[in-house]
Amino acid sequence: xxxxxxFLLACEGRIPRFDAALFADTGWEPKQVYAQLDTARRIGAxxxxxxxxxxxxxxxDDALNSTARFVTMPLFVKNPDGSRGMARRQCTGEYKLKPLxxxxxxxxGYPHPLRVPRGVFVDQAIGISxxxxxxxxxSDVNYTRNIFPLLxxxxxxxxxxxxxxxxxxxxxxKSACIGCPYSGNSRLRYIRDTDSRAWAELVEFDKAIRHxxxxxIAEGKPLRGQFFIHRSLLxxxxxxxxxxxxxxxxxxxxxDGCSPFSCRSGTDATAPVP
Length: 274
Prior knowledge:
- This protein has a single domain, classed as Rossmann fold, CATH 3.40.50.
- The strands form 3 sheets. A 3-stranded antiparallel sheet has the order 4-3-7, with no helix packed on it.
- The protein has 10 helices and 7 strands.
- With 274 residues, it is α/β, with parallel strands linked by helices.
- Strand 1 (21-24), helix 2 (31-47) and strand 2 form a beta-alpha-beta unit.
């Protein structure tokens, strides 16, 4: 929502124009997000602002591939003693930040392994609104300087919603992997009720990762415990997603989707044993 708002503001010239807009695609977003991306491309084309998709692979396919490196998602873990943990979150860095940094270096004309000279950088506009100002942070590399146009304009999440409605984009879906464990019951219901194919893939994925990554299993390194998509530590097809309907405090959604710059970080859980 906030990123799309910043993009439209740039297209309208209400904030400085961008040279390009980048979308880091994990390959496993809801179909509505890809529809929104197509809309942004059309708007950007009319305004002369290109929208570029960057990617390092398909996160679901990679996670289920016994020959691919397993990038840890913040899956819930049922430890041997029955306690609940959460796996380390590596997916944002690998599938979001890594391809964005690669694209920025290419835009600057210094692709890896070339060194970006001191003083050469891009202004990287990030869609963070006033109600999440605590997530606005400096870049961790010298060739990008993070700027926050929504903060400069004093725009809140509600302001973004109003702005998007005024532009005929009132039903914006959060960008986040279909299999993101930060999804609460309301988002999981939305996937279940609007995309039967995505829901079937998610249920099968939840089953497939129960005992760790296929690669770790193939190498004789099973997880000490069990992985789950849902915080209840139940198989997804057994979770009553409708039980919390109408009780916002029980929905447990991540209100910010999976922005590469504001995704929550999971706590370490029991690691695979060698």
